[in-house]
Amino acid sequence: MTVHHDRPTTLQQLRESGWKSRSVKQEIRDNFLKALQTGQELFPGIVGYENTVIPEINIALLAGHDMLFLGEKGQAKSRLMRTLVRFLDEWVPYLDLPGCPVHEDPYRPITRQGKSVLAEKQEDHIPIAWWHRSERYAERLAPGTKFADIIGEIDPAKLAAGSSMSTEDALHFGLIPRMHRGIFAMNEVPELDELIQVGLFNILEERDVQIRGYPIKFDLDVLVLFSANPATYNRSGKVIPQLKDRIGSLIQTHYPLERSLGIEIMTQEAGIDLGGEYPVVVPYFMQEIIEQISICARKSKYVDHASGVSARFSIANYRTMVASARHRGVRLNEKPAVPRISDLGHLPTSSLGKLELDMMGSHQMNEKQVLEAIIADAIKIVFEEYVDKHGLNEIADIFSKGVKIEVGDMLPSAEYAKRLKRVPKIWDKAFEVNASENEAVRASCIEFVLAGMWVTDRISRGTKHGRITYET
After folding, report:
1. Using an 8 Å Cβ cutoff, are 337 and 328 in contact?
2. E strand intervals along 328-443
3. Alpha carbon distances (Å) from 8 to 3, 15, 120
4. How many Å apart are CA 249 and CA 53, to the nearest integer?
5. Are strands 152-154 and 91-95 parallel, antiparallel or unpaired?
6. 357 contacts 306 by C-beta, under 8 angstroms
7. Where does residue 68 rank: exposed (0-12), middle (13-18), buried (19+ CB within 10 A)?
8. Contact 222/176 with Cβ under 8 angstroms?
9. Choice between 32 and 189, residue whose per-residue pLDDT is larger
10. Phi-psi region of 157 (alpha: psi -120 to 50; beta: other; left: phi over 0)
């Protein structure tokens, strides 16, 4: 980190500069109030929480609470916790002491070393260094975490060197003491060993550190954040009641309340450049289907609801769909490449690891069959909306007159165009894409209508060697 030369480098200069010491929660509250007052965007990149989650976080920050983010996977819990770093001062001063385990507040040191330096040295001889906010945040995932990792342990090397066991010199400090004056986040708190939960409870309650029965009265200054899944957090005995009782605010997260918000999150987080040498144009109905697949998975009786279906499910599926279209675009030299239903045939690669099946509900079906049923369900829902909105029956009629059409992810778009000489006017209006001018767009629309007619039982479908044939 580059430190500007005009910053105080001794304690005396720091006092003369007028710098004031604040607790980490006070610092966050002051900076948060400033951001609130000036109308800044408080949580950039967070979509769909404006009226639900964000007001709760705002109030918890103003209340100076430690927080628990409770929600299923892929609901931006970690992202929200990391965002709080932006409400810290960009730089804070600390006592520049070799070997000191914490970044000491220059006016209020908590270690023996810090206190003795202040007592014994002249202020113009006490060095000050600066700590950047990006380094004042640490997080851990609970599974596999040991007491020594986050709270501390007796250091045998220091004991061997002659440190007395009753002094803090004999201890190695874990992540939380080292985050003194910062933010510490513990993900999936129900997975934590009970001993560690007691250690955390001590820190929240007394702000003291107890290692192997040696209490050290450290006046620790930390904002502690937790995340958990409601299914495990609420299960009796997973989290000790004393710890639950000490967490100031519980912030409940959720999946997007509307499909359009899910699509916004999906396209934002996928971060794909659709331009370049082989551009891709994604019709909105294909985005709707990808997001609807996640919505259907969340409601499916075959999927384990305790674990949830993450937003990463939509993001990975969207990337796979675009990649499949681009692969075709390069192989067949089609520009732009336009995703179509047959590209969804590649979704098992991005989906299967992200769905946890409910073994009670899915004993008749394997993971791939569950996914195929969910995709069919999603196509049906989106297709029926289009039929209701645009009356696609006129288009459906064209296909119902004894038509037999083969489709596939590597079939050139021109093949589809041959099947459909006349493009009905409703086509352009219904799909918000200019189907009559572009063969690849038309191919995508054709597949959507065929798949829609198949899932609503109007035509039949056969699969052979990766190619799909629809016929009446």
Report:
1. yes
2. 404-407
3. 10, 9, 20
4. 12
5. unpaired
6. no
7. buried
8. yes
9. 32
10. alpha
CB atoms within 10 A of CB 289: 24
Under 8 Å between Cβ of 70 and 251: yes
- Model-level pTM greater than 0.90? no
**Residue 172: which of 203, 192, 150, 189 has the closest Cα?**
150
Q: Which residues pair with 153 in a beta bridge?
A: 172
Q: In terms of DSSP H, where are the helices of 38-190?
A: 53-63, 77-83, 112-120, 147-150, 156-160, 175-178
Instruction: Please give the pLDDT value at position 19.
Output: 94
More confident residue, 362 or 415: 415
Among 7, 194, 213, 176, smallest CA distance to 93 is for 7
Domains along the chain? Answer: 11-252 (3.40.50.300), 259-471 (no CATH)
Question: What pLDDT, in 10s, does the model give residues 246-277?
Answer: 899 999 999 999 999 999 999 999 999 999 89
CA end-to-end distance (rounded Å), the chain: 68
Of 85, 60, 310, residue with least CA distance to 185: 85
Distance CA(339)–CA(325), nearest Å, equals: 5
Given a contact cutoff of 8 angstroms between Cβ atoms, the answer to whether 78 and 67 are in contact is no
Residue 414 CB coordination number (10 Å): 13
Structure tokens at 248: 């100031």
Q: How far is CA 334 from CA 277, 279, 328, in A?
A: 11, 9, 7
C-alpha span between 398 and 418 (Å, rounded): 13
Q: Would you state the pLDDT for residue 453?
A: 82
Q: Please report, as a single letter, which amino acid is at residue 101.
A: P
Query: What DSSP state is assigned to residue 436?
Result: T
Q: Give the tokens for residue 125.
A: 């001889």
Token couple for 135 = 């380094």
Kindly state the tokens that stand for 83: 């965002």
Q: Are 24 and 88 in contact (CB under 8 A)?
A: yes
Query: 400, 442, 435: which is closest to 417 by C-alpha?
Result: 442
DSSP state of 234: T
Torsion, CA 64, CA 65, CA 66, CA 70, rounded to 10: -140
Rg of the chain over all Cα atoms, to the nearest angstrom:
29
Q: One-letter amino acid identity for 72?
A: E
